[in-house]
Amino acid sequence: xxxxxxxxxxxxxxxxxxxxxxxxxxxxxxxxxxxxxxxxxxxxxxxxxxxxxxxxxxxxxxxxxxxxxxxxxxxxxxxxxxxxxxxxxxxxxxxxxxxxxxxxxxxxxxxxxxxxxxxxxxxxxxxxxxxxxxxxxxxxxxxxxxxxxxxxxxxxxxxxxxxxxxxxxxxxxxxxxxxxxxxxxxxxxxxxxxxxxxxxxxxxxxxxxxxxxxxxxxxxxxxxxxxxxxxxxxxxxxxxxxxxxxxxxxxxxxxxxxxxxxxxxxxxxxxxxxxxxxxxxxxxxxxxxxxxxxxxxxxxxxxxxxxxxxxxxxxxxxxxxxxxxxxxxxxxxxxxxxxxxxxxxxxxxxxxxxxxxxxxxxxxxxxxxxxxxxxxxxxxxxxxxxxxxxxxxxxxxxxxxxxxx
Length: 405
What we know:
This protein is of the alpha+beta class.
């Protein structure tokens, strides 16, 4: 009788165990690419769910002796991607989430796009963004920084590590080249800029300002995942880098903008997850001493375990100005909808504008698209090129999924 009863209980127990298996073991692939199968080697957006991410520092296509691997942008980008994938480990080409390219010319961007189409012909294509301008070295045509899903086993919310193969390529070779962050809340701090008599002093003052912002959020530079600087002239990159490293040593990148003799710095940080279920997956904050704006937030803090990385967006027609901005935002709305989000759940925006008209029209039309109570944390950089001939504006966005109604 007892044997019969135990035999009856076993299937029930098996069903109970199946029903109580933690959700992550039962869910689908944590990487979703929107839409799959684009012919140019990119996805319009990549959604990552409940997985650790790794952010790379900016990489230059250099040999161990410090000279460029080639004069060809195609060869340079292949070297960058192959070395990055080697550092990230086996299968990393399928785990790439976002590639950020700075290129010397639009022609170099075209070469990069050709190589992306060849390298990522399968379904697992990264989101990609471009910006064009002078690079920190005049003898290279392209640089790269990236975000990927990480598979390393390390402790702590934020962990930094170096890679021997990345040493010759790294913008800041003396620092860890890769920053790993586990799932949880993220903080996106919009670009901040302080004045100084020279780039070194302006950088120092800006990093102090960012430190104060982080302090108000209960964070320090130990929590920072990635730093991006908009700088002019690019010849001052070593001076800016030296000052940044006094506060922060980790993944970072430099982009030229046309505001001569100045620097603006934005960052991404990891924050503790809320103790209670948040009412909204993203909140928008204005630190003390700063003014709020209806078209951008100073800080956005996410609370979910998912992020949406959107590829750089361009208008479809040849018309600049109003039509270009309208087309870009229409494309953005469509991509976000496909990814399960919307404009109210954008966390971070970077706008690259190459003409005064593009900048003015963007300012004029942004209020049409954003809820004034919840615009994304944003930086707008006036640049020499967008990485696409004839285009004067491109948008680079990060969002979170919108709650299901």
